[in-house]
Amino acid sequence: MALVGVLLAALAVGLLLYMMLVAFSRPDNFPPGPPPMPIWGNYVQMLLVNYKHPYKMLDLMTRFYKSKVIGFFLGESPTIVACDYQSVKEVLNNPHLQGRPVNIALKHRMFNKELGIFFTEGPHWLEQKRFSLRNMRDFGFGRRSERLEAEIAAELRDLVELIRGGREDQVRLSILAVCLSSCPATQLGPSATTLVEAQSISSWTLTFPALLEAGVVRPSSGALSVLLPDVLLPVFVNALLSVYTGARLPRSADATVRHLGHAAMQFQRSSDATGGFLTLHPWLAWLAPRLSGYKDNIQGSEKMRLFLEQHIEEHKQTYSDDYMRDFIDSYLREIGERGKTGEPTMFTSEQLSLILLDFFFPTASSLPATLTWALLFTSHHLGVQKKVQDELDAVVGRGRLPTLDDRPNLPYTEATLREAMRIRTLTPLSVFHKATEDTTLQGYSVPRGAIVITCLYSMHMDGDLWGDPNTFRPERFLDSDGKLIKKDFTLPFGAGKRLCAGETFSKQNLFLTFSTLLQNFSIKSDGVPSADSSVPGVIETAPTFWAQFVPR
């Protein structure tokens, strides 16, 4: 027995030494960084430094190691982080650094297949992305379109009317619609059912908490209290649905839209910006589904996907080769054409549902969150807010809403949006890249399979580049004549082949909504969270809050 004990002790010591040797070994010519620990690499160290925002440790490393490119380990995976403009741009333009690492939640979200365009790689990803963008452009996505701009203008007029208090009856209809979708019609009476049917309410089932979402505007002393970001959701979601389905949802379905926005945020907040322990230990999906973020990831995705799949099925029932109504029709036509060949194809209904989802979830979460940050910062910087309003009054006036034709003549408004996206980077670590081949970054070796991160937070807060990065100052984007500087060193939408597919669509909608709101309202700082307040997740969002809007 004593011999067995000695052998077990020797085995344990040997295993420990082996683990330490593996942990402390680093690939040749690897960027400087902290020594990793067994099993978790450097992830636990990141949490110990800043549990809420672990990515901030990366910014500290750049100063400690005096390098804008650093190397560490997420579990056993060698990970390289680009933290300044030059290194970030090199990552985004290196064809060997365009892979995508995915954890088990993202795999299950894609039915364990290569579906969608956000978390996939290789030739099928490129084919699907190109087809989607080319055909969505036909319906106004990513370009100037009179039809889509008219739809967005209608949404913005309705938003202004809602905030001013002119849509009280429609809010009641939203509450009634959600109640009918959650309760048997017999409990509400035939008159209520008839009323909702007349408003073309979606039959998609919502849960009871959605009843609380209908109230997004309420009277306040000398102002109107507006719930952010919830009040913004219909504008962005309906703009995208106009491309997907050829029509916006009716006003009576605003509660449905807000429910979808909450689902998108549930997905975005399911883990921190690094992907969390679920990336390191897939088995946590079964052992601790809620704690690991797996459940929120899957549930949030499923709520949105089921809504989108309902529209796909409705299109299948009314589809005709003679007329393409929208993007879903275009994709269904391609499915049919590919099916005629009898050859294997990646064009399927499952693929379509994931493509729709990959454009939908950032539209329903990132755009409202970005605009909320812009409104939050302008409420705390009344001088900036007044300059934006003075510019809008001079160029647009009060008799009509701003349009995209006004955009070149509103440089300060545009600069304010850019500054908001810089000082509050929505995706601090962007979306992780993966090396598909051995390559280099700023002279360092990047082994195949390594995770590569573009730390947009560090780049956007780089004192060497911006001088006073902690100051909210839109003028940094203007030249001495007050015109926009052509060279923009911010990269909130990425660059290269992984450039956000919705960049143009997003910028257009952000500009139109931001300018419309500040044209019609002043925003008080009373009750607005501080600029340092944030809710962690894959994206950094402001907490939900009631803002004081004063009609102008």
Strand elements, count: 10
Weakly predicted, low-confidence segments = 169-214
The assigned CATH architecture of the largest domain is Orthogonal Bundle
Average pLDDT, to the nearest integer? 88
Rg is 25 Å
Number of domains: 2
Largest sheet, strands/sense/barrel:
4 strands, mixed
Query: Helix/strand/pairing class, anyone?
Result: alpha+beta
Query: CATH H level of the largest domain: which superfamily?
Result: Cytochrome P450
CATH fold descriptor of the largest domain: Cytochrome p450
Quick recap of the structure?
This protein is an alpha+beta fold and 552 residues long. Helix content is 50%, strand content 8%.
What's the arrangement of secondary structure elements?
Layout (H helix, E strand, L loop, with lengths): L1 H23 L18 H7 L6 H9 L4 E6 L2 E6 L2 H9 L10 H6 L12 H16 L8 H19 L3 H15 L7 H9 L18 E4 L2 E6 L4 H13 L8 H15 L8 H4 L3 H4 L6 H25 L8 H15 L7 H32 L1 H14 L15 H13 L9 E2 L4 E3 L2 E3 L4 E4 L1 H5 L2 H4 L36 H18 E4 L20 E7 L1
Parallel strand pairs: 2-8
Antiparallel strand pairs: 1-2, 3-4, 4-10, 5-8, 6-7, 9-10
Helix pairs in contact: 7-10, 7-21, 10-11, 10-16, 11-14, 11-16, 14-16, 16-18, 16-21
Primary descriptors:
single chain; 552 residues; alpha+beta; Uridine Diphospho-n-acetylenolpyruvylglucosamine Reductase, domain 2; Cytochrome p450; 2 domains; four-stranded mixed sheet; 50% helix; globular
Description of the structure:
Helices cover 50% and strands 8% of the residues. With 552 residues, the protein is an alpha+beta fold. The chain has 2 domains: 38-97 and 426-460, Uridine Diphospho-n-acetylenolpyruvylglucosamine Reductase, domain 2 (2-Layer Sandwich), CATH 3.30.43.20; 98-425 and 461-551, Cytochrome P450 (Cytochrome p450). A hairpin with a 2-residue loop joins strand 1 and strand 2 (77-82). Helix 10 crosses helix 11 (254-268), helix 11 packs across helix 14 (294-318) and helix 14 packs across helix 16 (349-380). The longest helix has 32 residues, at 349-380. It is globular, with a radius of gyration of 25 Å. The termini are far apart. Mean pLDDT is 88; it is low at 169-214.
